[in-house]
Amino acid sequence: MFASKPGQVYNSETMRPLSSYGPPKVGGDILAYCSSCKMDLAHVVFSMVDTQPAIIICKTCSSRHRFRRKSPASSQSPKRPRTPVTTVRAAQLWEQKLSECKSSPRSYTPSEKYALAECIQHTKFGVGIIEEVKLSGKIVVLFRDGFHTLIHGTTTNAIPAS
Ligand SMILES: [Zn+2]
Question: Where are the domains of the chain?
Fold first, then answer.
């Protein structure tokens, strides 16, 4: 009495291969990228513009969103210019240090003397934080684009004899 029906399994909606999807139509199925599930999934076409689906509904998460032809991963250029790591780190460190700076920055003049952790305003480099005060009359300042060594306290050309 148990008669098997060949092809029965393949009548199931869920077993239909994704590649067999026909041209898009409202209410029909389409394989598209789901921005919620972050992968290519089966969707139901909710509305169309010309021959292209406009709004689609994800069968997995039921979210309604715009139809995208390509997933973001595949549309990205593989040769993307990379920001140098050192520049990013300097800028991040600079922002962090700047937020810790309580006083308003002093404008930088080579003749003046500066202290450690002081905020200065440089005409070319912008706002910076003094990271190191060297004995040789130099200061190492962290600016947005990185560290710069500047001179300070240059008025004391002649050391007064004591
Ligand atoms: Zn989804």
Answer: 21-73, 85-151
